[in-house]
């Protein structure tokens, strides 16, 4: 049985501070090669997600890592102790990126060739798993699985033309012969069907395990933080039940970021997150986690995750969770509809931390409402925090007192997450958003029934007050600098 990694370093652009090795503010190219090595060698991560979406991506990452850091990778073999996992575009959603999927899959045998030249004897396969974002069906997973098997590794046995030698005889073998496809579920509907989709996908496969990736940011962006947490928990519970039923291991991955809205996974909250999602095998550490905190704290926290032994989630009433999802989603989306214009304006001034375009959201508001588009989760979060409006509170206005206590029973770290988020609340944000004033006040009234420990960050409030003043006066010249100042205090951009 192969080793299943516990800590996946990612390329999410949620950091304010730049790592020491970054040559430009928006990291790209060789910066990301160095980042992968740094995550492995210094921080102790055992997996690096490699984003294959967008033109800036380096498909020769394996060759560059092995030739640039030979001593390290001879001791810690890529594909055996450490893992590089490609995130590929989903052709069903990102049609303009569809051919990049083919290029990314074609790079897998090329990476194997690089490993053969580097390692003596039987080399480990350096890349053998890909992540499919925005998965909504088993068919999408099968298309990638069988496309690779039939058209990439499968072509090696074909003659170049009738009576000629085979492709493998001409240019060498195409290995591995098959790959694992990791579904990434990003919308609540697919998350709630994750067990059905996984069951369908595995039914004709010999594999005795599957890694399954649950997003935490995009569901929060599209449905609110309550729905995101509860949908994650339902999916985890159902996947665990499925794994017992079909007698195949399912290893969940959780894509958590630093803000409470996106998962509240920081070096200082690791134990809370592990207790909230005890069924998760692999946690993502995103850029803010890695670069906006002291390195010794980052390394200690990563060790905590690596030593964690997962255990079954406490049983809970799914019907109650589904009712709360439905009720708070409706409230949250109604609020977002009213503030989208302002959020889009502010997000234009949020600094970009990666060169390439990140993928479009699955059920973004352009689809949901027909007329509303939102930035991605990091930009959205940064925009909200920059005006002192923690997005975590949006949607709580729908809850009764009884529903709040029911939620507290389902969402273990509710009070901890809200206590952290409300440090950055600025009452003046209501002046910018008169159309949702009643919902904000009602949400605060509901939340104040909880046992919170809020220590307002007065320096952050002062900066967000300046941002609010500048927005009112339509003075945008210093907005980016102020957004960065506030983010440095929070230790995350968005």
UniProtKB/TrEMBL annotation:
Entry annotated with the keyword Signal: no
Molecular function per GO: phosphoenolpyruvate carboxylase activity
Keywords: Carbon dioxide fixation, Lyase, Magnesium, Pyruvate
Enzyme class: lyase
Pfam families reported in the protein's UniProt record: PEPcase_2
Source superkingdom: Bacteria
Keyword set includes Magnesium: yes
One of the GO biological process terms: tricarboxylic acid cycle
Official protein name in the record: Phosphoenolpyruvate carboxylase
EC number in record: 4.1.1.31
Database matches in InterPro entries: PEP_COase_arc-type (IPR007566), Pyrv/PenolPyrv_kinase-like_dom (IPR015813)
